[in-house]
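To illustrate the input format used throughout this study, we show a single complete record. The first block contains the structure-token representation of the backbone; no residue identities are included at this stage. The design step must infer an amino acid for every position from geometry alone.
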């Protein structure tokens, strides 16, 4: 039945594409709208591929139907001889017309662009257009968190520098200007090379999710009454999903995101761990899910009230609080949202007050040594057992061992949103974190705890979901800040999975990889200092500390650490500096020209005398006495300066500027942009 529905949805989807592709409307937009109605339920990666295939089908249909009208070759046209006999001349003329229409437009565009660039540079100099090009480039990189490939960015900046240098040719003789450009090109190339060595590009990723988060964050700053509708429209179509693997080697810096994912109301308030996906497979660098495994997730015990969950849009998983009072079938480590619920209620049961005493004093059945929750690489197990020899001292029960492991992991590193990446040549993420790393967030701590638990002979797994603090009967918003990761271990005496919170409690909210882009990555929250399992206790039990609710948002996966921020900061700083200097130069020149072109001769002479004094100071020579006398005449006498007397000022200014233009390059740049005298 499911297969039939999927085929039917695909047929409808294809019909929509076939109709909209050839109408003056967006076919892709209509397909996305159709996805919200048809509800395929597949991953976003699959849907992106599906859209490409569907659109390719529409294009191929046109090619097949009209192939005879587009193919210019034939066996024999019956009129010509030789090669010409195999050409269908009407089709050849059609292709010629298409090429003839495109080529002139391309040539005209290039010529027009060159003409505009040359005109701007000739009128304003090259600095202003260069600044104007760098600023939008930097702004685009800020929005997309993407930079061009190194070779393209290098060529762009080098071309802009050469444009600035060659703009000097119009003010000097061509040979001198060309020589200056050639001399400056080499140090310019070396400076750019040094810049790229200082801020190397390793792997830049276009983070579409980061762009979406920035837009949604802006909407959330609008008054709530207006923003609510906007958030619903934007968020519903892009629900975050729990992935089926966690790539630990890709973990790096995390940033916050306030996107709301669900609303939770607990009949009995408190701190809730909303369980999404657990991971049983571990190979040293990745957590994976065994899709075939099935188990019941529930607890028979005291009634602990209901938890109502309302999600923003459909999500692939049902998020379960500890512990469902009714049996819940976990398939592949999760409870799939097969029925596309956006609202559901989970009745809960609580652990008994004496659960810890019972677990410590009881007799537990040894676990199955072939359990997937004990599996570790041989090398990892050997190294972990060496650590455990000092960690477990005196602990005998499962709970006591878990508590000591939790204490050790929390003290092994500091909490940081920008930890270092795993080093080259490392074979196990958890042990690298415990032995060499200085900082991490919840994914790091939870992984290390799960590995040590397994090495200690305790069945354990890595879990991702959300952590939220609720008040009784009061709805609480759950954002991507509340995403979190923790470890679960099986307590055989009680027959339940208990939470081991291994993340330090005194650290700020963490930031995690986005579930869509870095599978299994979750977000961080401040955690309790007690190693005691943080399963929700009955309302009357004070024995369990409650962790804070802040946690960190998802972040896209990047294969390598990059330095986009540093490059952007440098480019923006340079662009703003160039812009400020250029603007002040233009203002000073405009003001000076206005004073020197006034209709009053004496005022004009005094304005030129001010520039004369400035140029004399720059040339480190005294101002001409004759011009000083003319300035005194213009300022204090009742006589008016003649045209011949004003010509003396003009002649000196022209000669002084020429002398300044013979100075070294760095001085000329200072005179030009700082003093605006040449």
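Output of the design step:
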């Amino acid at each position: 039945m499911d297969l039939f529905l999927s085929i039917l949805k695909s047929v409808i989807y294809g019909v929509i594409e076939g109709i909209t592709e050839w109408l003056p409307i967006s076919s892709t937009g209509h397909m996305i709208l159709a996805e919200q109605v048809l509800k395929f339920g597949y991953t976003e990666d699959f849907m992106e591929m599906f859209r490409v295939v569907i659109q390719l089908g529409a294009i191929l249909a046109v090619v097949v139907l009209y192939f005879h009208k587009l193919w210019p070759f034939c066996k024999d046209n019956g009129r010509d001889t030789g090669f010409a006999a195999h050409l269908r001349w009407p089709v050849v003329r059609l292709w010629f017309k298409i090429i003839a229409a495109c080529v002139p437009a391309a040539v005209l565009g290039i010529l027009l662009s060159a003409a505009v660039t040359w005109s701007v540079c000739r009128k304003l100099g090259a600095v202003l257009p260069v600044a104007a090009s760098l600023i939008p480039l930097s702004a685009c990189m800020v929005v997309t968190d993407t930079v061009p490939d190194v070779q393209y960015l290098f060529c762009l900046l080098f071309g802009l520098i050469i444009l600035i240098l060659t703009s000097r040719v119009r003010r000097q003789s061509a040979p001198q200007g060309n020589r200056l450009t050639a001399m400056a090109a080499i140090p310019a190339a070396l400076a750019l090379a040094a810049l790229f060595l200082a801020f190397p590009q390793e792997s830049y990723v276009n983070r579409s999710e980061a762009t979406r988060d920035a837009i949604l964050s802006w909407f959330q700053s609008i008054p709530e009454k207006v923003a609510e509708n906007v958030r619903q429209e934007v968020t519903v179509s892009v629900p975050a999903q729990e992935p089926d693997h966690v790539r630990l080697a890709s973990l790096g810096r995390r940033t916050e995101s306030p996107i709301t994912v669900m609303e939770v109301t607990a009949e009995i308030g408190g701190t809730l761990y909303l369980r999404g996906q657990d991971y049983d497979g571990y190979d040293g660098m990745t957590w994976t899910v065994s899709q075939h495994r099935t188990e019941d997730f529930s607890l028979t015990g005291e009634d602990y009230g209901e938890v109502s969950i309302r999600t923003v849009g459909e999500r692939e998983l049902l998020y379960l609080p500890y512990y469902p009072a009714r049996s819940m079938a976990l398939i592949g480590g999760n409870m799939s949202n097969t029925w596309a619920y956006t609202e559901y209620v989970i009745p809960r049961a609580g652990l008994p007050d004496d659960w810890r005493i019972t677990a410590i004093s009881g007799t537990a059945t040894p676990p199955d040594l072939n359990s997937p929750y004990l599996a570790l690489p041989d090398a990892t197990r050997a190294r972990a057992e060496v650590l455990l020899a000092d960690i477990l001292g005196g602990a005998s029960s499962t709970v006591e061992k878990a508590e000591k492991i939790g204490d050790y992991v929390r003290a092994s590193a500091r909490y940081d949103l920008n930890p270092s990446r795993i080093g080259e040549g490392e074979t196990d993420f958890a042990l690298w974190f415990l032995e060499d790393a200085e900082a991490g967030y919840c994914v790091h701590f939870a992984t290390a705890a799960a590995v040590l638990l397994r090495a200690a002979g305790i069945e354990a797994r890595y879990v991702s979901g959300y952590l939220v603090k609720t008040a009784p009967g009061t709805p609480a918003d759950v954002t991507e800040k509340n995403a979190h990761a923790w470890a679960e271990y099986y307590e055989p005496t009680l027959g339940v999975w208990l939470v081991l919170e291994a993340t330090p409690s005194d650290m700020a909210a963490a930031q995690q990889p986005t579930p869509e882009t870095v599978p299994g990555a979750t977000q961080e929250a401040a955690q309790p200092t007690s190693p005691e399992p943080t399963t929700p206790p009955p309302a009357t039990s004070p024995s369990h500390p409650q962790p804070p609710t802040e946690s960190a948002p998802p972040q896209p996966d990047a294969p390598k650490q990059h330095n986009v921020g540093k490059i952007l900061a440098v480019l923006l700083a340079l662009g703003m500096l160039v812009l400020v200097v250029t603007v002040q130069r233009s203002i000073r020149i405009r003001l000076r020209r206005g004073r020197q072109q006034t209709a009053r001769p004496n005022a004009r002479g005094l304005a030129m005398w001010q520039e004369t004094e400035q140029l004399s100071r720059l040339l480190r020579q005294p101002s001409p006495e004759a011009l000083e006398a003319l300035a005194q005449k213009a300022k204090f006498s009742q006589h008016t300066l003649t045209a011949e007397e004003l010509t003396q000022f003009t002649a000196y200014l022209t000669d002084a500027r020429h002398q300044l233009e013979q100075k070294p390059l760095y001085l000329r740049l200072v005179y030009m942009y700082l003093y605006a005298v040449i």
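Structural context for interpreting the output: Residues 125-204+562-596 form one domain. Residues 201-212, 223-241, 506-562 have pLDDT under 50 and may be disordered.
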